[in-house]
Specification:
The complex is a heterodimer of chains A (581) and B (377). Chain A is 60% helix and 4% strand. Chain A has 581 residues and is mostly helical. Chain A is globular. Classes of the chains: A mainly alpha (581), B alpha+beta (377).
Chain lengths: 581, 377
Amino acid sequence: MTTAAENPYSRPIPLLAIVLVALAVHGPLLLMELPSSSFDANFHMFFASHYAHHWFNPWNEKWFAGFSQTTYPPLTHQWIALISNLVGLKMAYMLVQLIAILLLPVGVYRFAKIWVDDRAASYAALGVVFLGSLTFLVYQAGQLATVASAALYLNALPYLYQWMTESSGRSLVKGLAVTLSAAAAHHVTLIFGVVFFAGPVLWTAILDARDERVAASTSGVLLRAAVFGLLSIVGVAIVLLPYWLALIQHPIHQIPIPHDSRANFLLNSITAINYFVIPYGALIIALPFILVRGASCPRWRPLLYGFWLALIFGLGGTTPLPRWLLGRAYEVLTFERFTFWATLLAMPLVGILAIDLLDRFRAKAAVGLALAAVATIGGALFWLNANPFRPTATAKVEPVDAFLNRDGHDAYRYITLGFASELAKVSTYTDAGSVDGDYNSARLLPEMTNYGSAQLTNAKFYGTAGMSALRAMLEHANRYGLKFIFVHDPYYEPLLTFAGWRKIETFNNGDVTAWAKDDVPPAHRIASDAIPPAWQGLMWGILPIGVSFVAIFLSLFMRDTRRVPVGIPLRSETREHHIVA
Amino acid sequence: MKYAIAIILVAVTAGLMVVGLFVTAQAGGTIGIAKGSALHTAKASTPDQALNNLLADVQRRNWDRAFANVVSTGGITEPAFIQDWIGSNGSVRSFSSLEGFEVRPLHETNDEAQMRVHLHFSSPVGPIEDVRDFHLVREGDLWKAVWPKVEIPSVPAQVIPVTYLRWDLVTGSAGDEWGAKNVDSPHVRIISMNAVDSAQGSVVMGEVTNEDTVPAFVTVNATLVDGAGNAIDEESSFDKIAHVLLPKQVTPYRIDFPNLSLKNVKNVHMDVKATLVPASADPVIGVMNQKIETDSQGKSVLHGDLLNQSGETVNIPHVIVSFYDNSGKVVWVSDGYVDRALLPQSTEAFAVEIPKSLAPSIHNFHVVVNQYSLNNS
């Protein structure tokens, strides 16, 4: 046996140290507000801003001439809203994002321990701090809810395993509380997590029961899994009831909107870099090991299959499998999150690779692994500026908000053109409403849902579909009280000129221009059957945040019966001699 | 076993990726977003494939690769080739991007081929369709498109005196509203109105004139009313009208009601709004050589030439035409954007389509030219 003195890498890294590494790496980046120019950060802050002002009223008049925020799980937004009272909206976003990032290595550590020992799990958890996919989601995509939900879900799954194999009541209660919190953060993660994350955990528990590695019987595992699943379904149904009711009332029937993550990466080099090379980074080199090592032990195969399926889904339109399996949902989902999940699922096996290399090459391996980790996160951060489709802080929106907030201009609706994700920033700080918005699933206006394009502000990027949607909206300007248009891209000026808008003001030395149409009447409230009743507003304001408080309380004050799990064989069936000293 | 499972997963992944190449090709991929090089491009071993490769590269703006797929007969350079595609002088074409295309063979031998391509462009003023014939030749194993030399319009240096009328406006208030609200609106009048059913729905059209001595900004709205007096739908003339009318000027207007039949319509309420605005008679654009013809695709088209008589480039000319029957009634209003800029003292051809069923009944027409100039936007 190799001792710690002989091999300083032979012990697990303390979890606290890993969390501190995560804090050291991501804390400064978040304090610099690096994600504030990501694709979705302004969207999340916009939602949070509404909760900060109208906690129990999810009907938001600022986008789409009115939409319900019950169409998106509220947990992260409500936490931002709460914290924003202390530190402001943007810093609150950064803090919630930081908490999600800090929870992630903890979740990966606990998740990995279902399959590997403490040492490999600790390296898996350390590795997740440097993942390209995490960096991509946090700093480029701004997918706060996806990261937060995945972190919570990974923390819930060990409780599921413990409940299934040890029949621990505490694990059931804590597992349910954390699972419901994950659902309250992001519904898509929970739904697909059942297949990609819970599926391998259940399969492994069955294998462990069958091979008598745990005290439970196979039927017992299945029965307890069913109980957990049933309680989760009931819990999620109750906690997110307004969301389900909104979805049932208005299923997503809009024309599919193109998204680059659904492209065939073989036909587009930039897309391949953006959605494969950057998120995987140095993990690409580890792929053969993950495949061979994951297949070497029957107990690891469920994890391998989950990883492989997530990998295939993350390739978007490169393979037809996601389209075949998801049907119409394929056209609604974006696929970068699957790559994130694939990398998370790979981490336990990567942890094994790390200790294999450290046992064999020691300091050299440590240096190599460190360089690979830094190169991965460094590459993803570099890509923020190198990506030709990077989200950029396009326009200074303060003058636009000042214009809308003075002289009764907020009596009319407005749109922005060429503002990209800054649209949400404009909306956050003005009382005026827009017919545009940055959340596709909440759109109900036919001028938008009848065309295969997303935000009007980005209309030109969707070609004829986008410009047709914009045109349809402008044709109905009088109907919606759409008087003002703010232009940050001269591309749109010919259309506005021919359609009867006139330039009335310029901001930022002509960087942004304001256009108006004279005969537009003031905006009036658009009748909608999507307005949630007051009781749904109460539920929405209490239950999602409530389950997160319960989860925190249980985590702090209800101690685990014992650490999870034990007695798991680390090595593969066919041992490699160089591993063991 | 461990290698078997790994090999199977790799093989299945590779197989799915191969199948994905065909499925994605059918799906068409993303629009307006996709850029970069294809890691896989089919060899240009047929005229059809060569043209597809060329147009795909044009779509992605991979100009070097696109130009490598053409044979220059007239010594065309790559910049001229690029300009042929992306336009110049702030024209509609310079704002457009190639969104799709359909290739159809016209004639093919072992060494030469003639192909017709329907090109679909997206532009700020709406989709633009173009039909272009390509000549391809075989060079070794590969086919390439022959690209003739492109004539780039240029205007000699000259001085153009501006003597046209201009109306400025002193509003007296420093508000951000354009137009003048503290004076009477200009007097404008709808001089004709006709409502008809068309293939896409119902259409309300006619002409409106500015009877005042000052320029007016005009919008025309129409509301369809049913037998019970309830409004069925309300639409506006949008871009099928010249919004700025100089004194005594007449403009056609057309208001479309998509997917609506006139069967249930009892009445049409017309609403014309006018605002006093500053305006200039410059640039003056003449319309010449107008004639109705049938084009190569069998469509009835009004052809003509626009002459820019001023010294200012008109970046996007917009032609709106009223068509009259024997009795002088407006039977159709059609419009079209000219995809090349109208340089000073130069001409550009225009073409406006007419519904085939109406073509025989058209006795006369009136062409109005609207315009967008970068300098005056």
